[in-house]
Amino acid sequence: MKRTLALVRKELASYFAGPLVYVVIGAFLCATGLQFYTTLNSYVTIGFGLNILEHFWEEFFVNYIAFYLLIVVPLFTMRLLAEERRLGTIELLYTYPLRDREIMFAKFAACLIVFLLFIAGTLLYPAIVYAIQPFDPRPFVARYLGTLLFLGSCIACGLFISSLTESQVIASSCTFVVLLLFWILTWNEAAVSTSLVTVLSQTSTFDHFHTFATGVIDLKDCLYFLFFIGLFLFLTLRSMESRQWRGRR
Amino acid sequence: MIAVDGLVKDFGRTRAVAGVSFNVAAGEIMGLLGPNGSGKTTIMRILTGFFPPTEGSVAIDGLDVERHPLAIRERIGYLPENVVLYPDLTVVRFLRFCAEVKGVPAPVRRARLDEVIGACGLTEVAGKLIGKLSKGYRQRVGIAQALVHRPRVLILDEPTVGLDPRQIIEIRTLIKALAGSTTVLLSTHILPEVSMTCGRVIIIDYGRIIAEDTALGLTQRVRGSDETRVRVAGPRADVLAALAAVGGLDELREEPTGDGAVTVVVRSARGDALRCEIAALVIGRGWGLLEMRTLPMSLEDLFVRLVRDDRDAAA
Fold first, then answer.
1. Domain limits at A156?
2. Same structural domain, B204 and B272
3. Distance from B89 to chain A by nearest Cα, in Å?
4. Inter-chain CB proximity A9 and B145 less than 8 Å
């Protein structure tokens, strides 16, 4: 455990040594902040009598927070293992007294911690609205739990893809494509048969996240994301172990 | 301390290590000598538990590498070939990470870091980013990370490659200072390096051991004939003719020089007797003997010699 924590601290030191974290957090908060302002504005001015708060937050979390995270996550997961392999430092990690799963969890945890900063930044938006007009904060527990689970899934997927290649460009672009595919799986429901839609909506991250965004915690959705994370972490571990039977590092 | 038995490693259809067995006693410095691609790095990676052998077994400190990977790694300090470190960490931050991961207890960590930074000559760059360091300094950081937890076994893959002569001497001194307290296995493809630091040497080629001996024993074994360089100030044609007439020469070749002196390399099995004769000859003719030097044997020569000996023994 101590050793895993040492690796987490090293990962964080690496993240914050470069400008990437600061630049991307800045860009992310600018983009979501702009969407917060314009979307809320449009709901207030042309709300068509909808329950503004409920629909606004649902749209804001699904279309903006989650989607922008989906775009940003590959930029951070691409270096997790691909960079170590390209540099050759993975040989150090593999010969230090660390288990493969400790290396994997440390990488996953460090990346998640960085993204907690992103999420913490977004707490500003409900806080602003609450200051003007207090509301029931409980749905936000669901929204933020959903965001966290979705984030974990994206990072696990990115970590796995990063373990397959030495190229960060390949790692980030493949991760983005895979994440996007899971996200838009059900967007054109009319194009496929109803039975297929049922299967797709069970597989799509979008559909499962949507429940959280409406302010509801459903055990089924929690399990879906936990399974998603578990699956990709399992695949990462297998991929790391492949050095045992492959000739390459 | 290190017991390697019947080690075989296949990568697909390529056999990188083909049945290697050797022992390294506690406190001994053992050299692993071989050309690039001979299997040195593969053997070292198996020893560190980076990947398992296809066949055979490795025990370090009595523990099997495959069955006790973590316990083994705690006992080992490893410097990989072409050491590359995290460029975005400072030297101190990186070494602290290594100390933490390798289980150096918190109360002594500070002192241990200072000690290893001092021993590896890193004091003035301790606060710098590793990415900004020169190759020599990075190599020393690599050695520092291997030493930081005072390992009982040190495995160094080409520790002096890419260093300038002064740094090479420093690193050699550092390694020699470890003899007795630490078991060291180091690989190299430079022959003098082995004779200067290692007690015993294993020579490998195509994944198998072709010779195992002390550094002195190896040189004696191939002492059969050696090369001597002679530089003489005198008329070129006469000098060449006189030297060619000396008995017992296997080979004589002239090396070009720019200063008018005649430089000749002779190979012979006669050793010092030959050098005495040449010296007497040159002086007797009234020429100037500017230089006479036994040439250090290159690894290539040694290999050619050992492989030939092998074949002769088989025939």
1. 2-244
2. no
3. 6
4. no
